[in-house]
Amino acid sequence: MSKPHITLYYAPQTRATGTRIILEELGAPYDLHLLDIQDEHYADAGFREINPLGKVPTIKAGDTVITEQVAITIYLGDYFAEAGLAPAIDDPDRGTYLRWLVFYAACFEPALMDKSTEHDPGPSDRSVYGTFDEMISTLEQALTPGPYLLGERMTVADILWGTALNWTMMFGLVPENPLFRDYVQRITSRPAAVRMQAEDEKLAAEQAAAREQ
Ligand SMILES: N[C@@H](CCC(=O)N[C@@H](CS)C(=O)NCC(=O)O)C(=O)O
């Protein structure tokens, strides 16, 4: 069966950057649909018909719309399985892989958003992620001994986590420590991430210049 054509709805220097790095690491062919999310009208041209939240990353795989970084990551890792960056469904590592991917959306992001908006999640036993510190120390344990979430085996989950820890440490939301710093370095120094970082800087500058016209 031929693979569906992938279109990535994209804005530079956003959560979509991690998804684009994943596509590059997988060697997957894709088209880029560029959006300037700093332009208040960016979703006017029909993007909300595709994703009612107007958020990136969003992908279209053939006629199927997939939103949410984690869903997209799982989908792409499986669809481009020949790249060897996702444990198959019957692989003993599959459960751990899914665990840390879902932890990203279900615990890490809510904890960060609460922290950045100074929202009190309530007592640990009522909060979906426990406390912020418990969430961080759980992540530290997941990355110990490393070098990746599955030990010696790197997967698309590491690309998601490595790029996310990079921007969240940069914004001071996640405490810097040698474990996270080395992990981020391991992911962001890979050729795909270096290329996309440079490309993002160029795209962001072009969008800023176009906004000023
Ligand atoms: N839950 C979404 C969050 C995506 C998200 O927040 N994307 C931001 C960019 S980093 C966005 O599209 N913001 C544009 C807006 O809401 O106007 C996911 O995990 O994919």
Task: Indicate the CATH architecture of the largest domain.
Answer: Up-down Bundle
Note poorly predicted spans: none
Compute the number of helices: 8
What is the H/E order? EHEHEEHHHHHH
Using the CA coordinates, give the radius of gyration.
17 Å
Question: How does the SSE layout of this entry go?
Answer:
Blueprint: E1 6-10, H1 15-26, E2 30-34, H2 47-50, E3 58-61, E4 64-67, H3 69-79, H4 94-116, H5 132-142, H6 156-170, H7 178-188, H8 191-212
Parallel strand pairs: 1-2
Antiparallel strand pairs: 1-3, 3-4
Helix pairs in contact: 1-3, 1-6, 1-8, 3-4, 4-5, 4-6, 6-7
Bound molecules: glutathione.
Structure description:
This protein is α+β, with helices and mostly antiparallel strands. The protein has 2 domains: 6-84, 3-Layer(aba) Sandwich (Glutaredoxin), CATH 3.40.30.10; 94-191, Up-down Bundle (Glutathione S-transferase Yfyf (Class Pi), Chain A, domain 2). 51% of the residues lie in helices and 8% in strands. The protein is built from 8 helices and 4 strands. The protein has helices at residues 15-26, 47-50, 69-79, 94-116, 132-142, 156-170, 178-188, 191-212, and strands at residues 6-10, 30-34, 58-61, 64-67. A 4-stranded mixed β-sheet has the order 2-1-3-4, with helices on one face. The N and C termini lie far apart (46 Å). The chain binds glutathione (GSH).
